[in-house]
Amino acid sequence: MSETVASQDEDRADAVAPAEDASRAERSSEDQLVREGDIAGDYLERLLDILDFDGDIDLDVEAGRAVVSVDGGKDLEKLVGARGDVLEALQELTRLAVQQATGSRNRLMLDIAGWRSQRRSELTDLGRQAAQEAKDTGHSQRMRFMTPFERKIVHDAVASVGGVRSESEGEEPRRRVVVHPAG
């Protein structure tokens, strides 16, 4: 009988261990993302000081990535640029700074002056409109050229509408989303 109890205890321990390992890995991953956000925040703070721009830096973790937002002064719009081109460049530089400090690639997302969150809302609406148009007319809708960030949002918006599908076509930087009626 004692062998049976010991065996059951071992089975329970074996069943709990993977759950504990998963929980530990999740905490470790979250800790790594927080560290990436801290490194990015320090980098951006130094950059803002050099440029003599005012801004509040907010660090967060969303959907398995570090998210850094810079809000505040009106001059920050200069760091967004036309259609977010300066923002994209700053995001890449920030990612490289984090990679240099951690030794590993990252998926850090940078937003300045709320531009990405506003753009996300606009693109979601645009994607849903294109999906509805393709569904209503039965004709594919070709959208203008977009960045990978923009295309991802449009694909997600199209996926939320039934009876249509989307794909990207073309070569960077002239890559676009095409929305097709299903079937």
TrEMBL record:
Region (Disordered): 1-33, 161-183
One of the record's GO molecular function terms: RNA binding
Comp. bias regions, Basic and acidic residues: 21-33, 166-175
R3H domain residues: 117-183
Protein name according to UniProt: SpoIIIJ-associated protein
Origin organism lineage: Bacteria, Bacillati, Actinomycetota, Actinomycetes, Pseudonocardiales
